[in-house]
């Protein structure tokens, strides 16, 4: 079963919790067992699993990534559209995650959340694809 939904981002860099939306899709699908693949088809965004309860983790994560990949790093791609750092961060973070589906429920750690990472916002209509296999 293939589903997609869209979100708008509001900052240049931002981490947005998608766990509720994904669980809603999984619950409505009515499937019992399998795997849930969540995929972000964007070259300047990504998706991670981590804690959302403490919002400081989102800030810390973006800050740590900024140290590894500074915005003004002299990237060749900056000559095209000025977002070389966003492309590199997207590749480091990755574009998909896969979770088990067991007895109709998404199997996810108590302190894990599914979170969209914006690295070149704000943007409208960032797409998230959820496929249950
Ligand atoms: Zn670019």
Notes on the structure:
The chain has 133 residues and is of the alpha+beta class. The protein has one domain (2-132): Jelly Rolls (Sandwich), CATH 2.60.120. Helix content is 29%, strand content 33%. It contains four helices and eight strands; from the N terminus they run E-E-H-E-E-H-H-H-E-E-E-E. The protein has helices at 19-29, 56-68, 78-81, 84-93, and strands spanning 2-7, 14-17, 34-39, 45-50, 96-102, 105-106, 113-118, 126-132. Strands 1-8-3-5-6 form a five-stranded antiparallel sheet, covered by helices on one side. A three-stranded antiparallel sheet has the order 2-7-4, with helices on both faces. Strand 5 (96-102) and strand 6 form a beta hairpin. The N and C termini lie close together (7 Å). The mean pLDDT is 97. Zinc ion is lined by residues 77, 80-81, 83, 87.
